[in-house]
Amino acid sequence: MSALAQYFKDHGARVIGSDREASPVTELLEKKGIQVVIGQNAENVPADTEVIVYSDSVPEDNPERARTRELNIPQFSYFEMLGKVSEGKKTIAVAGTHGKTTTTGMLAKILRDAGASPTAVVGSIVKDFGSNYLHGDSDIFVVEACEYKNHLLELSPKILVLTNVEWDHTDFFQSLSALQETFRKAIEKVPEDGAIITDPNNKNIAPLLTGVKACVVDYTKEPAVTLRLPGEFNKNNARAAAAAARCVLPTISDTAISESLTSFEGTWRRFEYKGKSENGADVYDDYAHHPTAVKKTLEALRAKTNGKIFVAFHPHLYSRTRDLLDEFSVAFSGADKVFIAPIYAAREVDDGSISSEILAERIRATGTDATALDFDAIAKELSEVGAGDTIITMGAGDIYKVADNLVKP
Which helix (H) or strand (E) holds 375? Predict the structure, then answer.
């Protein structure tokens, strides 16, 4: 949403917005000259507003959306609008269960560094750009896509990057096969002169490629590049970005790709090193909220440290926590101590079937020390972690604020 706001401001529109609370993203928008009101009220909608764009987290009964209907102002979801602004452009959509944000940022940087001047809309702040939006003067449009509620199908990419596929968004997709069907439809939309960048040997992707019109490019054949970011998963993200860059710019050199990726600084909340705590512990923050992402991130962190690893995890959605409980129970095996915060409800209502206490109990049953605590208690526990050990906050909610508060000014 915030990247799209910057895009419209960049193209001469007057843009205002609202959010529940201030964050690094709202601060970024304010610096860019975009007014952001904290708190969502009907009065936030000027009578001369021409269009409203809303995110999935804003329900239909939101007072601003209700006011918009009273004023007969057109409303569009974020991805509906993204489909409209990218229409007619050479769109490269980066999709998949894991790695979308990092891969999108890497690809945009490669193309920028090569002089292609792409426009990019990324799901998090890319440190190399100082923003989640990159202004471009060409018709190349790089966008991070999402399968939730079939949003991916709002886009018409010339090139589709599919990093990987696992069951997620369980509140919408009742099974892996249902999610695969959405990706299959997205693959079918890629034109014959386009390309699909993926791992064709991935067991969840291979069945989706039967009879495709577009060229299928195997990103796993790309050579590994030395990165500032840890983990094999980031090497795969880099491979996917490199393969996509070659499709966009067939004459780009190996050296240009390698130099761009080697200097890539990463994105906000993706294995981000925050600094030292008051007691000298290393503090990291990561957006991981799916069991596979949690597991891979902890494996990469374990490879970087010999000390103990303390995890503060903020589960995202009751449905995901409940439906992937077995996977979550073993995902934290790389940690020494896990603190589970209350589940971040987002768009859902608690039906009593799952809780942070249940998740902690299941993790303990696998042999990993885990305790369910509130945010204040977690912050107190982590403040006592000493030098030589490592803290990582994980999850899609507000847990990053715990990491921010732990790090010395």
Answer: helix 375-383
Predicted local distance difference test score (pLDDT) of residue 347: 81
pLDDT at 225: 94
> What is the structure's pLDDT at 258?
98
With a CB cutoff of 8 Å and minimum separation 6, the contacts of 72 are none
Question: What phi, psi does 209 have (nearest 5°)?
Answer: -100, 0
Q: What is the pLDDT of residue 196?
A: 98
pLDDT for position 57 = 85
Q: How far is CA 8 from the centre of its chain?
A: 21
Q: Could you please report the per-residue DSSP string of 102-140?
A: HHHHHHHHHHHHTT---EEEEEEEETTTTEEEE--SSSE
CATH architecture of 87-262: 3-Layer(aba) Sandwich (3.40)
CATH of 2-80, one of 3.40.228.10, 3.40.50.720, 3.40.1190.20, 3.40.50.880: 3.40.50.720
337: left (phi over 0), alpha (psi -120 to 50) or beta: beta
Return the CATH number of the domain spanning residue range 272-406: 3.90.190.20
Q: What is the pTM of this model?
A: 0.90
Q: Which of 158, 177, 157 is nearest to 167 (CA)?
A: 177
For the chain, give every domain's residue range. Answer: 2-80, 87-262, 272-406
